[in-house]
Specification:
Elements (H helix, E strand, L loop, with lengths): L3 H24 L3 H24 L11
């Protein structure tokens, strides 16, 4: 996997953002801040998806588009 390190880093950031979102809910922070963090997580997820799409498929992969 050529982009393994980049993907792993982005997944780590996504995990951190999810933890941040949980803390924001527990503390009752504003919806505006929550949505801003959620939007950042969505953007990060799209980056991960684009890197995965760049990876060549192996002959034993099943399904997918």
């Amino acid at each position: 996997m050529r982009y393994r390190d980049i993907i792993i880093n982005n997944v780590d950031v996504l995990e951190s953002q999810l933890k941040t979102l949980r803390r924001m809910v527990q503390r009752g922070e504003s919806i505006k801040e929550f949505i801003a963090t959620l939007d950042q997580a969505d953007e990060r997820l799209e980056k991960v998806k684009s890197y995965v799409q760049l990876e060549p498929k192996s002959p034993n992969e099943v399904g997918g588009n």
